[in-house]
Design a protein that fits this description.
The complex is a heterodimer of chains A (about 260) and B (about 375). Helices cover about 25% and strands about 30% of the residues of chain A. In chain A, a hairpin with a 6-residue loop joins strand 6 and strand 7. The longest helix of chain A is centred in the first third of the chain and has 17 residues. The radius of gyration of chain A is 20 Å and the shape is elongated. Helix content of chain B is about 15%, strand content about 30%. With about 375 residues, chain B is an alpha+beta fold. In chain B, the strands form four sheets. In chain B, strands 12, 13, 14, 15, 16, 17, 18, 19 and 20 form a nine-stranded mixed β-sheet that branches. A six-stranded antiparallel β-sheet of chain B has the order 7-6-9-4-1-11, with no helix packed on it. Chain B has two domains: about 170 residues, no CATH class; about 110 residues, Cyclophilin-like (Cyclophilin, Beta Barrel). The chains are: A alpha+beta (about 260), B alpha+beta (about 375). At the A-B interface, strand 2, strand 3 and strand 4 of A face strand 15, strand 18 and helix 4 of B.
């Protein structure tokens, strides 16, 4: 079988069309999603409303009153096919996320250590060693779906989710790691907390992270945590965002 | 003349500030929110002389009691019939009334529908958050501190658009009001994952009756009925959730995703309720029976465009209503260029007058 199934266009109502590039979680596929998102935003076609990049597809929202829907479908089809193999860009943007591990800020660090057979110090070391790739945002404003955590840290979710997890909590769920962007219920194992706000509607930008960026966790002590927390509250904190040229990529086909 | 200001005496069941939604941040996980019945909302704004996206109050079933603490303006209620009154006098929906300091706006109980829009000249002036005034309560964003109204809240309105006072008495004719037949099937555009359901599953969805469950809010309406069968797993790799998407999780009961839906999700979507019928569904209540039928995208787009034309029609009617009314014998200004609409400053006897007008035949 050598049928060319992707990219394909999927109808998603009268104001949205989805361009799908595959059916696996894969960085190469995800990089094509990002490329098409950028191209669509640049094209500024009439009636354009929004794009939602996800693991393996791009949703394009439009106003059906001012959009020639047939023309849009055909244009998106051509743009998607013209993207080529999508090797991804050479440079990458890394956002450094300071995190205070363990104690009241990371109440499950000891459990993760016990589950993985590592010392708590080693868990922190490994969690801060690998950069994680942001495939997409969703669930709540500013919540990132990250891939690339050190596989030895894999730990299942809590059996009984907590009713309220503070914003900024850094957690592990299976092979995934992530940061709760707003206070919400949740079942991830909490190993630390960042004093950064991943989502602050009164700040510009409200959300620093974008799909396609990388997250680098950095362990901080209580004093630095307090300092950053104060700057965050005063809205003077600017996160460290690095532009790097790096050959390091997570293996293709990696599944969360 | 001062712009309107209100004080909340009773908040009602769930009264929130909404506009046409918070677009262009979905890629960062920010839901759109906005009015659930967009057409009723937009028509209400046109009636009171506003831009059709101006912020209004979305009133759910049991409405609030508001007192006008300042200013003068016009108001109209559209959408559900929730028993709107001004100073105890019933005011028909779709009708523009003048309100001023000291007036009491209230709702004496629901007759039909679920969500009404109280639109006021100038719009509700709460801070813009990420380019919108819409309330999204789950992340405490927009509106009044990101929540529903509560007793004692104070709200101000924006500066009303020119000619607002000439809107008084304007009525949206029945022919231009959205049809909200509670028995009509909800029309669904198949996809994006209709291929992940069996023939039997599709037959259940399009062929049997569902009932709106008690899990029905601004985020989505879950239905109860014949379980819809998947070909395999009910989960997909998470992707975007458009307005009206019908998610079918493993339990087989469909959930129609609405204004406050999360931006992405991992359940299969059998189809997407067309935009026009999303508004119709948002006027229905738990316990109501629902059927689904198929519609082609181009036909659904046709329905959306027809609604846009009715908004244009109402704008024309508004222009005619405003220009027919009550013109005093003002001196005819000299030497004004012939613009097609807008605003100008005239000097008559040394006094400046701001004149605004709109062209009647312009829209189509």
């Amino acid at each position: 079988m050598n049928e060319k199934k992707y990219p394909r266009l999927l109808t998603a109502g009268d104001g949205c069309v989805v361009v799908e590039f595959g059916d696996v979680i894969d960085m190469e596929i995800n990089s094509r999603v990002a490329s098409l998102a950028a191209a669509v935003r640049k094209a500024e076609f009439p009636g354009f409303l929004d794009t939602v990049p996800t693991y393996r597809s791009l949703a394009v929202y439009f106003n059906p009153v001012t959009t020639d829907v047939d023309a849009l479908y055909s244009k998106l089809g051509k743009m998607a096919s013209a993207l080529g193999t999508g090797k991804g860009s050479e440079s990458r943007r890394v956002i450094v996320v300071p995190s205070l591990y363990g104690g009241e800020h990371g109440p499950d660090l000891a459990d993760v250590a016990e589950h993985t057979g590592l010392t708590p110090e080693e868990v922190v070391k490994r969690h801060t060693a690998n950069d994680c790739y942001c495939y997409m945002l969703g669930f709540t404003p500013g919540f990132a779906y990250l891939g690339g955590m050190d596989p030895s840290l894999e730990t299942p979710r809590l059996k009984n989710p907590r009713e309220l997890i503070p914003a900024g909590s850094v957690g592990i769920a299976g092979k995934q790691t992530g940061i709760y962007s707003i206070s919400s219920p949740g079942g991830w194992r909490l190993i630390g907390r960042t004093p950064m706000r991943m989502f602050d509607p009164d700040r510009n930008p409200a959300i620093f992270l974008e799909a396609g960026m990388w997250v680098r966790f950095r362990a901080v002590g209580k004093a630095e945590f307090d300092e950053i927390e104060a700057a965050t509250a005063a809205r003077t904190y600017r996160p460290e965002i690095l532009e790097e040229v790096s050959p390091r990529l997570v293996g293709a086909g990696e599944v969360l | 003349m001062a712009a309107l200001a209100f004080s909340v005496q009773m908040p009602g069941m769930l009264t929130t500030v909404q506009d046409s939604g918070r677009w262009s941040y979905q890629g960062k996980g920010m839901p759109v929110a906005g009015a659930m019945d967009m057409q009723s909302f937009a028509l209400g704004n046109i009636l009171v002389g506003n831009d059709e996206n101006a912020a209004a109050l979305e009133v759910t079933l049991l409405g609030p009691t508001l007192s006008v603490t300042e200013g003068e303006g016009v108001a109209a209620v559209t959408g559900a019939e929730l028993g709107f009154t001004v100073n105890g006098e019933p005011i028909a929906n779709w009708t523009v009334v003048t309100i001023r300091e000291g007036d009491i706006l209230s709702f004496d109980g629901p007759r039909s529908g679920c969500r009404a829009y109280l639109c006021v000249s100038g719009g509700i002036d709460v801070p813009m958050v990420m380019e919108s005034r819409s309330t999204y309560t789950r992340a405490k964003v927009g509106g009044l501190e990101g929540r529903a109204l509560k007793k004692g809240d104070a709200m101000r309105c924006g500066e009303p658009a020119p000619l607002w006072n000439r809107c008084e008495g304007l009525v949206c004719p029945e022919a231009l009001r959205p049809l909200r037949d509670p028995a009509a099937p909800l029309r669904v555009i198949p996809g994006p994952q209709d291929d992940l359901f069996t023939e039997k599953g599709l037959a259940s969805f399009y062929g049997t009756e569902y009932v709106i469950s008690n899990s029905a809010d601004r985020m989505g309406y879950r239905m109860d009925g014949e379980p819809i069968e998947h070909t395999g797993a009910a989960d997909i790799i998470s992707d975007a959730i458009p307005l009206g998407a019908v998610q079918v999780p493993g339990h087989g009961q469909p959930i129609v995703m609405l204004a406050d839906r999360q931006t992405t999700g991992g359940y299969t979507k059998i189809g997407v309720v067309c935009s026009v019928d999303v508004a119709a569904l948002s006027q229905r209540l738990p316990g109501a029976k629902v059927r689904f039928s198929k519609i082609a995208v181009k036909d659904a787009v046709g329905l959306v465009r027809a609604e846009a034309r009715t908004r244009d029609e109402l704008r024309k009617l508004r222009a005619a209503w405003r220009s027919s009314a009550r013109v005093s014998s003002a001196p005819v200004p000299e030497a004004v260029a012939a613009p097609t609409g807008g605003e100008a400053i005239l000097r008559v006897d040394g006094k400046e007058h701001v004149i605004s007008w709109e062209e009647i035949g312009e829209v189509e």
